[in-house]
Every structure is written in structure tokens, then in C-alpha cells.
Design brief:
By secondary structure, the protein is an alpha+beta fold. It folds into two domains: about 90 residues, no CATH class; about 120 residues, no CATH class. The protein contains five helices and 13 strands. Strands 6-5-4-13-12 form a five-stranded antiparallel β-sheet. Helix 2 packs antiparallel against helix 4. The longest helix has 26 residues. The radius of gyration is 32 Å and the shape is rod-shaped.
Amino acid sequence: MPRFHWKGRSAAGHEIEADTIADSQDAVVARLRGQGITVTTIATTGEAEAETSGSSAPAPRPDAKPRPFRGALIASVFFVGAFALGYFVPVTFVRCERAAESVACTLSEKDLGLVTVREQSLSGVTKADVESRAQPFAEGAQSRLVLASAAGTSIRPSNWDHFGGPLRTSSSGRQTGASEPTVGATTDAMRREIAAFLEDPTSTSVSSWQGQYVPLAIAGALVGIGLLVLGLSTLALFKGPTDWIYAMTARLSAASDVRRRQRGR
């Protein structure tokens, strides 16, 4: 391939001179323009296998093949991680409907609130209660909703919440449950809503939901990172936006160098 010797001016106004190997003069000019360099003179100096390492300026960025599948693969890792977390700590949805004299309730657990992973139904519901247990490895309590029928059958979520029950005051005066790490309704609020519905024969339906704040926040962050990676990978498929990003980066770097030199005077 031919070697071209060129002189140009950076976005900050600095003179630059170097050799570049490319298919044509137009290819050199286009490549340098993407780096924010304006070519003033250019000439062919001969043929070469590769550029020498002793050029007076950094070698321009070589054209690289976009690899969208690699970006999609990285993004999919973050998406899978988010949905895996959501599977083990799902969002709980409860809906009860009254038909004639009977109340039927459906309890669904959904991955990130989107994909149903478990669902239970119970007819003839007569009672809404909360069962609690001591929180493992920490002070406080965990609780979960229990729906029971007159026949003695019951349904409940597979997961426990954290400090989701009523406020309790310990012997030291500390209240557990004062800070609820849940989004949506707390466990005790869900119990009160369903109990009020069961006592009101004029109500036709009631629904509520609950998610755990920390797992949802982590899953949301993973999804956000995955979308960012996927967006950047898609953007890399288009030469115009990619060259604009490189040009802006070169201008910002040159402006930073100028400010640094001015402060050093």
C-alpha cells in the first residue's frame, strides 16, 4: 500500500506532520478529519508494508471492523444477571375478586415484575394474615402475607420481606419496621387492604403488589448498563457518529492540553 506524508493542523491549532499508509489520499484526509485534523499538504512517498514507529505524531486511529455481536453478548450478560436476580427475589402481586358470596385470590410472583415464575390461586378466601420469623444473621424480623380459606387451605409468597410487618419496639427501645426496604405495599399494608376488602361485601376487587428495594435497584442498574452497552455497540455500526465522537474527543483533549500549558506559564 502507498505511504503518504502529510502536514496538518489540529483542532487546537497545532501543526502536525506524520506518515500514514492508506489506499488513497482521500482515505488519509477522511481518516484525519475524523480525528479533528485538517490536512494542509499531502504527498505520496512510496510503498510500504506498515507505518514506521518513529513518526513525529501519534498514528491515526486505524479503521476497525465494528463488532456488534460482541457488544450484544456483553449486554446479554447484564440482562441475564438482572433476570436471574429477579427470579430469586420476584415482585409479588395479589389480586382478589368477589363472585357472589365467595372471594377468590390469585398470588403471582413475577421476575422483575414482568415474567411470571410462580402463581397460586385460592377460592373461598376468608382471612388475610401475616406470618413472621426472626431475620437470619441480623436483628429484626421477616414477614410474608398468608391468605386462608374456610377449608383450612392457604397460599403465601415463596419469599419473605424484611421488616415488612407491623412496628415492634424492642427492649432497648429500637423500632424494627420503621424503615421498610420495600417498594409498593408493605406486607402489613397488604394484609390490611385485603382484610378490609373481605369485610366489605360491596367491594368487588382489590389488588396490591410488593417488591424488595435493594434487589430491584441492583437489577435496574444491570439492565441500565446492558442497554448502554447495546446502544454504544449499535452506534459503532455507523461511521458518521463514530467519527464525530472521535473528533469531539480529540478536540476536548487538545483544549485540555492548551489549558494545562496556560496554567503552567
